Task: structure prediction
Amino acid sequence: MFANKIHEEAHALMQSGDLEGSISLYTKAMEEFPKDCNLISDRAVAYLHLNEKAKCFADFDLALSLQPNYSYRYASRAFAKNHFGDIDGAVEDYEKAVEIDPNDAVAQNNLGLLLEQKGYKNAAEERFKRADKLSKEEDHLLEIMDDLDNENNPKTDGIKEEVDPNIQREKNISTGKELKKVFTSKSQFKEFMNFIKNGFKIK
Result:
């Protein structure tokens, strides 16, 4: 979410490639919301793309100090550390990120890539397996939403009445019913998942 209209305008400028302009607006928006972590982190990303290392880490460090128990802050700084060549520092931050949130598939995968780069193939493979499992679980939820979309469309089949009578499938159907109470379509659910992956920011 955006802190204010200026934050939204800054984001639009960064998306268009006007990094200097976006930083100017991010800084202006921070006059009203100096402790908004998403705003601070967004400016850090703009500095990263300009290769302004010191300013980039100053913002990522500030955002992390304000949200020390939020895995996304560590993962963001890890990405920046890797960008600037600090692989060991990036590994350390990714490890902290997955310690806080073991279900972060992106952080697990990125940690695996760095461990593989450092020659720790077995440890890397373990991270890849975890990331793959988590991604498949998310894909399965999207499949459930596909079923819900079909159920809402009389021209296609809905969830089959004859289901494999195992506990996991029963859990999946129950999950589907619960998701349906909140999300009316797969696209709505996918948008929500992207919202979470982006650190609760609309991209």
